[in-house]
UniProtKB/TrEMBL annotation:
Keywords, ordered alphabetically: Amino-acid transport, Cell inner membrane, Cell membrane, Membrane, Transmembrane, Transmembrane helix, Transport
Annotated GO MF terms: L-isoleucine transmembrane transporter activity; L-leucine transmembrane transporter activity; L-phenylalanine transmembrane transporter activity; L-valine transmembrane transporter activity
Domain of life: Bacteria
Subcellular location(s) of the protein: Cell membrane
One Pfam family named in its UniProt record: BPD_transp_2
Name of this protein: High-affinity branched-chain amino acid transport system permease protein LivH
Length: 309
């Protein structure tokens, strides 16, 4: 009986760990999904926004030493700026024309995808040249590793912050998309960009706003994970970025609820898989789920559009 209780507690503990990891993937995946919904292209530089958000937080701590909540606000502001810059450098040069043929051009979509990939590689390499490839430590006073006992379970304060931050951002995003004029415009551009242009919506402004919102969420998730793990490094955005991309594909490319659910499922699967395989092998879970999705659910689990993944 005691052994059974131990396994029950261990299972719930793993589920909590997987939920926290899945929510991090979800915050990044939402940025992927928002941008894909508006531009119909994948932003492969989004993982580097996650990384830059962590370093922006570290810089703010080292220079200003603000309270923890202020660090999150400063990183959110940095994420907004990074999103605007990313759109201006990597995406806007390919939006010179707004006719239907240009909007549906696969060549332009592929060029935009490669542009974001190039920005991703350049940013990562420049950060390695500037700060080095080694891990940078978060100051002890800002670490969120304090264990909180919930009966037999233990949850770190950093995981609590991940839960609260994710829930707050999800609620605010839903309010923004369904209760504001900006959200209505974002959904209109996502449904029919050319039609939105004809009814007077400033599509360029909406695209910039979408990049800013998605990048804000990615940057904040980066510093939250940094405060929880205690270390950040230039390559830290690659793996979460890939997992978030897999969640977006599983969710159907343009479905925010689908991306969130898929990201949580991915995080739970990774956490539970460590009971059967080593940590290194558990990294293959996301690729396996991606392969299954592409083979058996070519439009994603929650996809609605006709276009196949």
């Amino acid at each position: 009986m005691h052994m059974l209780d131990f396994f029950d507690v261990f299972l719930v503990q793993q589920l909590l760990n997987g939920l926290a990891q899945g929510l991090v993937y979800a915050l990044i995946a939402i940025g992927f999904t928002l941008i894909f919904g508006v531009l119909n292209v994948v932003n492969f530089a989004h993982g580097e926004i996650y990384m830059l958000g962590a370093f922006a937080g570290l810089l703010a701590i080292q220079v200003l030493a603000p309270p923890g909540f202020a660090v999150l606000l400063l990183v959110a502001a940095a994420g907004l700026v990074l999103g605007v810059l990313l759109e201006r450098v990597a995406f806007r040069p390919f939006r010179r024309f707004n006719d239907e043929a240009s909007l549906k051009s696969k060549a332009l979509r592929e060029a935009t995808l490669l542009s974001s990939l190039a920005i991703s590689i350049i940013t990562r390499e420049l950060m390695q040249l500037y700060v080095g490839a080694d891990m940078q430590s978060i100051p002890q006073a800002y670490l969120l590793m304090t264990p909180i006992q919930l009966g037999p379970l233990s949850i770190a304060s950093g995981q609590v912050l991940i839960f609260v931050t994710a829930l707050l951002m999800f609620v605010l995003l839903q309010w923004l998309l369904f209760r504001t004029r900006l959200g209505l415009s974002i959904r209109a551009v996502s449904n029919n960009r050319l039609g939105a242009l004809h009814v007077g919506i400033n599509v360029n402004h909406i695209i910039i706003a979408t990049f800013a919102i998605g990048s804000l969420m990615g940057a904040v998730s980066g510093i939250v994970v940094g405060l929880y793990s205690g270390n950040i490094f230039p390559q830290m955005g690659f793996s979460p970025g890939i997992k978030a991309f897999v969640a977006m594909v599983m969710g159907g490319l343009d479905s925010i609820p689908g991306a969130v659910i898929s990201a949580i499922v991915l995080g739970l699967c990774e956490a539970l898989s460590t009971d059967f395989v080593s940590q290194g092998w558990s990294e293959l879970i996301s690729y396996g789920l991606l392969l299954i999705t592409l083979l058996y659910f070519p439009r994603g689990l929650f996809g609605k559009k006709v276009e196949r993944v």
